[in-house]
Amino acid sequence: MAKKRSKLSGVIVMLIALFIALGAFVYFEVFGPNARPGANNEFVYVRTGSTYESLLEELTKSGVIKDLNGFKFVAGTLKLKDHLHPGRYRIKKGMSNYDIVRMLRSGRQEPVKLVMNKLRTRNDFVRLLSANLEADSSVIIKLLSDSIFLDELGATPGTAMARSEERRVGK
User: Fold this and answer.
1) Which of 106, 122, 93, 98 is closest to 46 using CA atoms?
2) Who contacts 129 (Cβ-Cβ below 8 Å, separation ≥6)?
3) Chain centre to alpha carbon of residue 91
4) pLDDT tens across 30-88, in order?
5) In whole angstroms, what is the distance from residue 44 CA to residue 68 CA?
6) pLDDT of res. 168
7) How would DSSP label each residue in the chain?
8) Smallest Cα–Cα separation from 45: which of 89, 100, 96, 99?
9) CA dist 55 → 16, 44, 75, 152 (Å)
10) Looking at the DSSP assignment, which residues form a beta bridge with residue 46?
């Protein structure tokens, strides 16, 4: 009788230890740091129309995530596939899978900063915008020629470039 009780308590202790180890593993997969140590302030771009699979390719290609399988586990649990928002996302050193997935899922993105130096022509301006934003250059050219759109900004097709220069200088 004492041997059975001893074996039973040994099995119970082993099961408890197994559950604790499994819980610790899951906790560190979800909440442990997963951003690559050198990934301080690196950006991941999710383009308009991107799929979950293309996001995984981007994460693999950029190398900002150490454990892609852990990321997939958390992303699947939080249904990232159904709530992926396009944008520019900053991955900070030490971010966990949970933090990264929540950021991507909620759409908390970083603004794109445009520096307009040495823009002499309208085409230079259009090239700068289309290279840094998800905007087609033909659409930007049409907007710069659209008097109704420019009137809302207090400009005309002839003064649109000069108005942007005034705003930058602070007049």
Assistant:
1) 106
2) 114, 135, 137, 140
3) 7
4) 787 888 766 567 888 898 888 999 999 988 888 888 889 999 999 999 999 999 999 99
5) 14
6) 47
7) -HHHHHHHHHHHHHHHHHHHHHHHHHHHHHHSB-B-TT-TTEEEEE-TT--HHHHHHHHHHHT-BS-HHHHHHHHHHTTGGGS---EEEEEPTT-BHHHHHHHHHHT--PPPP----S--SHHHHHHHHHHHSS--HHHHHHHHH-HHHHHHTT--TTTHHHHHHHHHHT-
8) 89
9) 38, 9, 11, 37
10) 87
Closest among 36, 41, 126, 39 to 88, alpha carbons compared:
41
Residue-wise pLDDT tens digits, 136-167 = 888 888 888 888 888 888 888 877 776 554 44
Residue type, 81: K
The first and second tokens of residue 72, run together, are: 């997939």
Q: In this structure, are strands 87-91 and 42-46 parallel, antiparallel, or unpaired?
A: antiparallel
pTM of the model as a whole:
0.69
